[in-house]
Amino acid sequence: YRSVQVPMMFKSDKVNSTYDENLRCNVIKLPYKGKAYMLIVIPEKGEDYLFFFFLFLNRNMDISFPKFKLEQKYKMKKLLYALGIKNLFARTADLSHLTDQKHITVSQVVQKAVIEVDEKGTEAAAATGSEIIAFSAPPVIKVDRPFLFMIFEETLKTLLFIGRVVDPTEM
């Protein structure tokens, strides 16, 4: 990977983290308001794409990683068809409860997902970051190479977002 200059953010906080010797990576768990959190997977230099589950240790640390924003549009028609939702796209679909217009049809459903991470936290469809003040001088983790991020909701044990940041300047 090539090196690029990007705006960085810094937060000193008490967070859950672990180092996996087998996979050779650091993982930190950043809490959000409610029951959501972000996992950041930082492989050692030279390592590549990782995805796994493991135990965390709660410890103080300083975290530095790039600000980033991802936007993606998804055409949902094929997926909805596969889920059995076909009548919505038919010319005979009854959409009278949505509009007063006659003779209209749905040609496509588009979903836009946006996630932005900066010092204030994360803005996404179902997650907002929280701010906590650190109490001591912790170890430093600097995310200066490609990394994975995942946003989970704990109550439903649901993965809300997953992504890989390789070059934040190309987002």
Automatic annotation (TrEMBL):
PROSITE patterns (alphabetical): SERPIN (PS00284)
SMART domains in the cross-refs: SERPIN (SM00093)
> GO molecular function terms here?
serine-type endopeptidase inhibitor activity
Matching entries from Pfam families are given as: Serpin
Q: Which InterPro entries match?
A: Serpin_CS, Serpin_dom, Serpin_fam, Serpin_sf, Serpin_sf_1, Serpin_sf_2
List, for all copies, the residue spans of the domain called Serpin. Answer: 1-168
One Gene Ontology cellular component annotation held by this UniProt entry: extracellular space
What family does the database annotate? Belongs to the serpin family.
List the PANTHER family hit by this protein, alphabetically. PROTEIN Z-DEPENDENT PROTEASE INHIBITOR, SERINE PROTEASE INHIBITOR, SERPIN
Q: What is this protein called?
A: Serpin domain-containing protein
The major lineage groups are:
Eukaryota, Metazoa, Chordata, Craniata, Vertebrata
